[in-house]
Amino acid sequence: MFCNRVQILLKPIFNSVKTTFRKYTPRRAVLYAPADNLKKVLSTFMLKVDCIMLDCEDSVVLSHKSEARLNIRQLLDQGKPIKKSNYDFGVHMNEPHSELLKLDVSVIMTGKHVPDTICLPKVDKPSDVQIFADLLNEYVKSDIKVNLIISVESPESLVNLVEICNTAVALSKTSKFTLVGLAFGCMDYCVQLGVKISKTLNEVLYARMKVVTVAKAFHLQAIDMASNNYKNLEIVKNQAEEAAQLGYTGKKVFHKSHIEVVQEVFSPSKQDIALAQKIIKMFSEHQKEGKAYFLHKGTIIAMPMMRWAQHILELANAIDMKK
Predict the structure, then answer these.
(1) 67: phi > 0 → left, psi -120 to 50 → alpha, else beta; which?
(2) 292: confidence class by pLDDT, cuts 50, 70, 90
(3) Does the pLDDT at position 6 exceed 60?
(4) What is the number of alpha carbons within 13 Å of residue 161 lying toward its C-beta?
(5) Going by DSSP bridges, is the β-strand pair 250-253/294-296 parallel, antiparallel, or unpaired?
(6) Degrees, nearest 5: CA angle 244-249-253
(7) Which neighbouring-strand residues pair with 149?
(8) In this structure, are residues 165 and 218 in contact, taking their beta carbons and an 8 Å threshold?
(9) What is the distance of C-alpha 236 from the center of its chain?
């Protein structure tokens, strides 16, 4: 298998630089579905997508909130739904500023089976993460650890983002979650800025760069905003490529037609995989000769390029395992 070849290639390099082979969960496309619509929810499990995020928040009206969380609980009581390929089962809960989050946790997180990942929206300050941690500790009696993605949706959140992440990392040591990612939500952010979303997305460039920079500083995945253009896949592709160039690892999608193009953008190309394999092999050979860097087709190959190659192969390995 490809994953075995990757580990064989990387083993001598890992030994020389004292690093380890990471377990990476791809979230190239994070597909949102309103949890109160059981027909739509069930249809998502027929799709080849990295992450299914069942939404209890903005896509569900207040009168349907109870139905949404009960649908998720009933699904989980039967065990994680089986798909042809591995996937991340996520739940987008309600914001920590409301009593709805308490109800979400008390229903969704108290069964025998729980989601793989929780996305916590509208986290504006560190105390919002503390609220979530306290609710998990109150209602969850098992020794589970759920993945946590924090959603950044306001100027206040952006200003407090480093402190929010520091708090979440500290709480991960004693609470029942592990911080794995940051997601950017542009709709609420633009509302608070008092601007409309344009085709250029210039009004959210700073926010997107801040989110991805902080995410990488804390070794987290960065999930970009969804495209609000449902029909023009070329625009979706362009926005995804821009996000990938900024450093994002995935993107929210609200329509199934976006999945394939988004996942392709956030996948390493065959050319990158071949180059990464070559760099790993050449780097190992030059290390044995006592050379810290070397030239390859006019390009200096040193440790940063080796780490790029390592990242490409790790991602390719994780995606290969999903097939």
Answers:
(1) alpha
(2) low
(3) no
(4) 27
(5) unpaired
(6) 90
(7) 119, 181
(8) yes
(9) 18
Q: Say which amino acid occupies 23.
A: K
- The gap between the terminal CA atoms of the chain, to the nearest Å, is 11
The secondary element (H helix, E strand) that includes residue 201 is none
Side-chain-side CA neighbours of residue 244 (13 Å): 19
Strand 294-296 to strand 299-301: parallel, antiparallel, or no bridges (unpaired)? Answer: antiparallel
Rounded to whole angstroms, how far apart are CA atoms 179 and 30?
17
Tokens 């990942």, residue? 117
3 state SS of 92: strand
**Cβ density class 173-201: b for 16+ within 10 Å, e for less:** eebbbebbbbbbbbebbbeeeeeeeeeeb
Element (H, E) at 301: strand 299-301
8 Å CB contact between 51 and 90: yes
Which residues pair with residue 177 across a beta bridge?
146
- Which of the pair, 5 or 71, is modelled with greater confidence? 71
Q: Which two tokens stand for residue 303?
A: 């440790």
**AA identity, residue 78:** Q
pLDDT per residue over 93-144, tens digit each?
999 989 999 999 999 999 989 999 999 999 999 999 999 999 999 999 888 9
